[in-house]
Amino acid sequence: MGFDVAAEKYARFMGRYAEPLAPHFAEFARVRMGQRVLDVGCGPGTLTRHLVTLTEAHLVAAIDPSPPFMEAVARRLPRVDVHTGVAEALPFKDGWFDVTLAQLVIHFMSDPEAGLQEMIRVTRPGGTVAACVWDADTGAVAPFWACVHEIDPEAQDEAFVAGARMGDLERMFKKVGLRKVEPSGLVVRVTHPAFEDWWDPYTFGVGPAGDYLSSLDEAGRSALEAVARRRFGDGPFTVTATAWAARGTVA
């Protein structure tokens, strides 16, 4: 899957939506000053940066399997404890964190339940585990897939990934043993000043959408771009994106 890209490209592709989402998600997770906090699947550090403003940098840890992303986080946030690794094998002590978060990453874990169990393991009893995933139909990349399906109705989109439907995360949290599980929907609105501001980052090859676009020949890419331009015009236009979130308490 296309995540072996420069941090700057990922930021232009998803950061434009993840950045306004981060404060809503951190508030939902009830992150507070003085807490030890872990950002799982941190990418280039969009949520990590916000966590540093809520608690102290030396109390924040971040982990992601992408070396370019972790290099970017280490460079920009030198006091944060950064690690290259996967959610299913977190390199931290049992019960070390007060809050463990996964923003827009549960659905990309090779084993989401194992990833959640690891998040629980490294969180203290009474601490919080929280995650969020874009909604299948109204998430940040849903407009792109709507254009794809106009041309290629059978194209495999991101509608059936873990957590992408209402109630998915809540059920998963309960299954792995979290208590007091609470779901929510988080909404962000991003205005694109011009069509190219929205379209160009899809050409960077990031994630499933970038993989799909890269798989097309020149004629296919041109046809898809034409459909999108017809739908959205030259801009400006606003994308309203919903993410499903859940939080739970560690027993």
From TrEMBL:
Pfam family, one: Methyltransf_11
Every Methyltransferase type domain range: 38-130
Entry's transmembrane regions: none
GO biological processes: methylation
This protein's UniProt keywords: Methyltransferase, Transferase
Any GO MF annotation of the entry: methyltransferase activity
Protein's name in the database: SAM-dependent methyltransferase
